[in-house]
Design goal:
Layout (H helix, E strand, L loop, with lengths): L1 E4 L2 E4 L9 H6 L8 E3 L2 E2 L2 H4 L8 H8 L18 E8 L4 E8 L11 E4 L16 H8 L9 H13 L8 H7 L10 H9 L30 H14 L5 E5 H5 L2 H5 L8 H5 L10 H6 L3 E4 L9 E4 L3 H11 L10 E3 L6 H7 L6 E3 L11 E4 L4 E5 L4 H12 L4 H15 L4 H4 L4 H7 L6 H7 L3 E7 L7 E7 L4 E3 L2 E2 L6 E8 L6 E9 L7 E13 L4 E11 L6 E2 L1 H7 L6 H14 L11 H32 L39 E5 L8 H4 L4 H11 L9 H6 L15 E7 L5 E7 L1 H4 L4 E5 L1 H6 L29 E7 L2 H10 L1 E7 L8 H7 L2 E11 L2 H9 L11 E10 L11 E7 L4 E6 L4 H12 L6 E4 L15 H14 L3 E4 L2 H7 L6 E12 L2 E16 L5 H10 L9 E10 L13 H19 L3 H7 L25 H11 L2 H14 L33
Helix pairs in contact: 4-7, 15-16, 20-21, 21-22, 31-32, 34-35
């Protein structure tokens, strides 16, 4: 893995490629990539630093120091790294713009392209007027909060506008494709408002009169009696109330601000084309000619582990490389890998640490691989294996316009499935061939293609002397052999996919998919189904059917037995109900199936089949009408046609399929009271300032103010911890983590790791001792360590044992994996994994156990021991009991924990730059762990890319590890946790389990709460952290806003072998309130009372006391009790009874699709039982 050259050592996987450069150069290969960023050519000496295994994001941030693009997840899931890649398309004679994930795209894949980062769109360096309209809209419409995700969102919007070809896209087009960017703190409505405000048809959202003027802007608005104006004013009044009393802000207001954002930037839409280098368009230019040559890059960088990059420009050259490097070596899987989008290989190398000595990137000049054609003579759609999924999607959309029915029915399912496949950024680079060869068992497209009868063309270099291309055909349904294994020789490639066009009538293809969320998520179960019917005497007969599934086996599978049972049968409900039973048996999943949810997945598969029946019945009805109206157009169809299967109207909602529906639009209205400006003391005491203050105050009060850092966020010029330029001599850190728990940590062998080039030091608990530091952590109890000492028991997987620091991040991470940990014996059965295990084992943090009792304890005991009520009549006490669970939740702040520690003054001082919500804790523990006086440790926090409580305590251990390494090496150390490491080590929102006994007394017109007796457990993890105060907060919120005359609650934190769980928004309050809501709803159902009435009748009243002694409303010192009045106002203003009646009416007519409505009050308290958290301070400089 290592190799020496001169006096230096290098990380090398292969040794012979650099010796072959000369021979390949003679064949036309060039050695240097041609890279452009923001319209400027990257000098050759800088471009030569690009490595085959280096991502575009790494090159931008580390080599070019362009830190606007952020690293959020490193797997193309969050969009924080989004950049725009532009290239000249010789076929269409136009510049193609597409947004991509720079965290996955190899930098060498940008060869011959122009990369646009957020820095190239607009900058604040020339003032606010230099902001691009998209950036200005995002600032003014409050589209950024923490700002970490904002650059990626800006570039995604910019790319969509750029791809619209000299015009702004339509609102629907924007809503269809802005699907690859996550935001954790701002909320999406202001982002969407900003994006849509610049669309060409944004003004169409505004109501216009016959005069053409927008009603909201009409100078005669109050006098005009046109229907459009009165309707507009009425809608505004109903949503915003009395204009004199409230301020109303709506999406329509935002969409009317386009002129304000555009300003003098009249040609802003064409900016991407103007920025594109002219020499990449001019076919006669030297650059264009050079970029047309094949590319070979052999990595020669120090302390890196890259291999060789090939970019062939012809199919022959590609197949020669596959012949030379693809053949099995010593029983292996070959020595090369084809990459196109790098969406799979990038994950394998980053998280699975796969090593590919050679990466082959087929150039777009290989037309056989980049194509989309419809061969009408043969009746097939031909798709090149390397054609990006987004092009396939758009080609399907384009060719469906005005196309005949068979082609629409063939392309429609492909287009619909791809719309929801991953994200726009992924679809812009990923290809169908890669999807097939990867053979994912949960692939969306593979089952579709298998069901449609698609065929693959597999190509290789012929063994004959002429070296011609040898091709063979393979059915997609037979291509998948087993998990991640396909029927393809290592020297072969998938050249194209051929999809048969369906028949003119009576043949149908449908896609199905279920995931945890609709956009940008992997499927739980996915399916493609095709059926061909023929008219019979008594009805339609199933002539042919193919049913394929993903997520139901280790590979894409056809439901062969189910299909056999259906062929020749009548197309009717009974056939499909019988087929459902056969399908469940054929695809039966064991309880231990990887991925879990066995019963749910089998139910999904069966439900897809029935949905298929309903949707085909609707299409069949349309075909029957078409054939009946024009029988001459269908000479092969016998007349008259039989009737449809019996299907009630109330069942038709079962055909609803989100894959085929438009992505929904949404808009918002925000209403809040007009500000009441009171006369200030300065009016009397400092009258001299009246003339200066009052005009400004009148303009500012009640108006929204843009985020002060908004322009910095939107231009990528806001610096986060990982964006700070590296100080001289900076080292990179990687944590050494435990992979087992419940066993003793006996030894750490660092010999192999230290031999790795670039590794400087590996620190462990002994280094803390050497510094005279204290190896303990914890916000309340100091029950954690910076590095676990040898001989101690490992309490969780992911416990920090040490830290590696090296010259490069790649060396540090590789060395951390090479550290050998010796584990002692342990009892696996004694490891407490879950909350339920902890309760059974009595594994508690007893210091956190607290109990509150109000009312009659004897009654509570009696209710606890009583059986649940069977009779429900006036005057009876109704008792319910049960167990309620609320799960954990990942913080998923987009910026992972990051620290830069810089020693100074002979290592007697440390400056800690970090992403934390607890600067004081960080300062104190960095000081104690390094043996440095706290006064000589400075903690600096400029901004965070999200926190939500997750960086309140769980960031400290990473800062301490970096501080120890920095002081031991006398060099600056940066430690930025990878997303998977951050999620493994930092904990989540506490999971809760509650066991309750509750009762209510039935009254003539409802029910009154009588008692609640509940035991509350939270999952604290392996250390105490803040689990005690979180449990206390839940204990105080267990009543929500309801009066339980008799209440007993006991809460305790449980100790498990998970990462210590910690603060999260709400800090235990939401978990307590949701218990109350569950109990109240359980009682409402048991008492036969509507939930709205149950909630309203049992709200606290003025003068009532909570179970912790606080008097609400009048009679107390805690202000007004507004919840009942707010409940009534919303109940009446929203006309909840009318809404519920409409919902019941809808549900009665729809068997499968249901609606609901909820109006839930909340009471949220402040303060913490960890009393130091109630303190705060600020240093104000005047």
């Amino acid at each position: 893995m290592t190799r020496s050259r001169g006096n230096s050592r290098f990380l090398y996987y292969e040794e012979e490629d650099d010796a072959r450069i000369g021979a390949l150069e003679k064949k036309g290969y060039r050695k240097l990539p041609i890279l452009y960023v923001n319209g400027n050519r990257i000098p050759n000496d800088v471009a030569s630093k690009a490595r085959s295994n280096q991502t575009l994001l790494s090159f931008l941030r580390e080599t070019l120091l362009l830190t606007g693009s952020k690293l959020g997840c490193a797997e193309g899931g969050c969009g924080a790294c989004t950049v725009m890649v532009s290239k000249w398309d010789a076929e269409t004679k136009s510049i193609q713009h597409r947004n991509v994930n720079a965290c996955l795209m190899p930098v060498l894949a940008a060869d011959g392209c122009n990369v646009t980062t957020v820095e190239g769109i607009g900058s604040i360096k020339q003032g606010d007027d230099s902001l691009h309209p998209i950036q200005k809209a995002m600032v003014e419409l409050h589209g950024s909060q923490c700002g970490f995700c904002t650059p990626g969102i800006i570039v995604s919007i910019y790319s969509l506008y750029a791809a619209a070809n000299d015009k702004a896209p339509a609102v629907k087009e924007l809503e269809e494709h802005l699907d690859g960017n996550l935001c954790r703190c701002t909320g999406y409505r202001p982002i969407w408002d900003a994006a849509r405000s610049l669309c060409d048809d944004s003004e169409d959202w505004e109501v216009r009169g016959p005069c053409g003027t927008r009603c909201r802007e009409c100078p005669e608005r109050h006098e005009c009696q046109q229907e459009c104006n009165t309707h507009s004013k009425g809608a505004e009044s109903s949503s915003c109330g009395n204009g004199n009393d409230v301020i109303c802000s709506t999406t329509k207001d935002k969409l009317a601000m386009k002129k304000e954002f555009v300003g003098k930037h009249t040609e802003w839409v064409n900016q991407p084309n103007r920025m594109f280098p002219a020499e990449l368009v001019d076919t006669s230019s030297e650059v264009f000619q050079e970029a047309s040559k094949p590319l070979l890059v052999v990595d020669e960088s120090e302390y890196q582990g890259a291999g060789t990059w090939f970019k062939p420009t012809s199919l022959q050259d590609l197949l020669k490389l596959m012949k030379e490097y693809g053949e099995n070596q010593n029983g292996g899987k070959g020595r090369c890998k084809i990459v196109v989008g790098n969406t799979e290989v990038g994950i394998e190398t980053k998280f699975k640490h796969a090593v590919y000595p050679r990466l082959i990137y087929p150039s777009e000049a290989i037309g056989e691989l980049y194509r989309f054609d419809v061969n009408a003579d043969v009746g097939v759609v031909v798709i090149g294996a390397c054609t990006p999924l987004s092009r396939i999607q758009h080609e399907c959309e384009h060719r469906m316009n005005g196309a005949d029915v068979p082609l629409c029915r063939t392309l429609g399912p492909i287009r619909n499935m791809l719309r929801w496949f991953a994200s726009t950024q992924i679809r812009n680079v990923a290809c169908l061939g890669g999807n097939l060869v990867t053979a994912s068992p949960i692939s969306d497209m593979n089952p579709m293609l298998a069901a449609m009868g698609a065929k693959l063309t597999l190509s290789r270099l012929d063994e004959s002397k002429d070296k011609s291309v040898s091709r063979r055909a393979k059915n997609v349904s037979e291509f998948f052999l087993k998990y991640r294994t396909v029927d393809m020789d290592p020297t072969e490639i998938v050249e194209k996919i051929e999809v048969p066009v369906v028949a003119k009538v009576f043949e149908y293809v449908k896609p199905f998919k279920q995931a945890r969320r609709r956009e940008d998520d992997i499927s739980i179960v996915t399916s493609g189904m095709r059926i061909k019917l023929s008219p019979g005497d008594d009805g339609f007969v199933i002539e042919d059917i193919a049913i394929a599934f993903g997520g139901m086996a280790p590979k894409t599978v056809l439901a062969v037995e189910t299909s056999k049972s259906m062929k020749g049968a009548m197309f009717c409900r009974e056939t499909f109900l019988n087929a459902q039973d056969i399908l469940v048996k054929e695809l039966k999943l064991p309880e231990t199936v990887p991925g879990g949810q066995a019963a749910y997945r089998m139910t999904l598969a069966a439900s897809f089949l029935y949905k298929f029946f309903i949707s085909v019945t609707e299409d069949l009805n349309a075909d029957i009408k078409t054939v009946t109206l024009d029988p001459a157009a269908f000479p092969d169809v016998d007349q008259p046609l039989p009737g449809l299967p019996a299907l009630g109207d109330y069942e038709l909602s079962g055909s609803v399929n989100f894959l085929c529906a438009e992505k929904p639009s949404f808009s918002g209205t925000q209403v809040y009271p007009a500000p009441k400006v009171a006369k200030g003391l300065e009016d009397e005491i400092l009258p001299i300032v009246d003339g200066v203050r009052q005009p400004k105050a009148a303009d500012a009060v009640g108006k929204g103010s843009a985020h002060q850092s908004g322009p910095l966020h939107c231009t990528g010029e806001a610096l986060y911890t990982d964006d700070i330029p590296p100080p001289p001599g900076m080292l990179h850190g990687a944590l050494v983590l435990a992979t087992q728990s419940g066993v003793r940590f006996e030894a750490m062998n660092t010999e192999k790791a230290m031999q790795l080039p670039g590794v400087v030091k590996i620190c462990a608990s002994e280094d803390i001792d050497a510094l005279g530091g204290i190896n303990e952590l914890g916000p309340i109890a100091h029950d954690e360590t910076v590095f676990l000492p040898k001989g101690e028991t490992i309490s969780m997987v992911g416990q920090v044992l040490g830290i590696v620091v090296a010259e490069t991040l790649e060396s540090a991470e590789m060395a951390a994996r090479l550290v050998e940990i010796k584990y002692g014996e342990g009892d696996a059965n004694a490891v407490v994994v879950s909350l339920e295990n902890a309760v059974q084992a009595g594994s508690f943090f007893e210091s956190t156990r607290h109990k509150l009792v109000r009312g009659d304890a004897g009654l509570l005991d009696e209710i606890r021991n009583a059986v649940e009520s069977q009779e429900v009549s006036t005057g009876h006490i109704v008792k319910v009991s049960g167990t309620f669970h609320s799960g954990a939740q990942e913080h998923f702040y987009l910026e992972t924990n990051s620290t830069l520690v810089v020693p100074s003054e002979g290592d007697t001082n440390l400056t800690v730059y970090c992403s934390t919500q607890a600067a004081t804790k960080t300062q104190n523990f960095c000081a104690s762990s390094t043996g440095t006086p706290a006064a000589k440790v400075v903690c600096r926090v400029k901004r965070l890319g999200g926190g939500f409580g997750g960086k309140e305590t769980r960031s400290v251990f990473a800062s301490c590890a970096a501080a120890v390494a920095s002081k031991r090496t006398s060099r600056p150390v940066r430690l930025t946790l990878a997303r998977n490491v951050d999620m493994l080590t930092t904990g989540q929102r506490h999971a809760f389990m509650s066991k309750y006994h509750a009762s209510a007394k039935k009254t003539e017109d409802g029910a009154k709460l009588l008692s609640m007796d509940v035991e509350v457990y939270n999952n604290g993890g392996a250390a105490l952290d803040l689990s005690g105060p979180v449990a206390d907060r839940a204990l105080f919120h267990i009543d929500n806003a309801y009066m339980f005359p008799n209440l007993r609650v006991e809460a305790v934190a449980c100790k498990t072998a998970q990462a210590p769980h910690t603060a999260y928004r709400g800090f235990g309050g939401p978990q307590g309130m949701v218990i109350a809501e569950h109990v109240v709803e359980h009682l409402a159902v048991a008492c036969g009372v509507s939930i709205d009435k149950m909630r309203r009748d049992n709200l606290y009243k003025d003068g009532d006391s909570t179970h912790f002694g606080m008097v609400v409303g009048e009679g107390g010192d805690n202000g007004k009790w507004n919840v009942p009045r707010m409940f009534d106002r919303l109940y009446e203003g929203l006309d909840v009874p009318k809404r519920r009646a409409a919902i019941e009416e809808f549900n009665s007519h729809h068997k499968w699709l249901k609606r609901g409505c909820a109006l839930i009050p909340t009471k949220f308290g402040i303060a913490f039982t960890a009393k130091y958290m109630n303190q705060g301070g600020a240093l104000v400089h005047l």
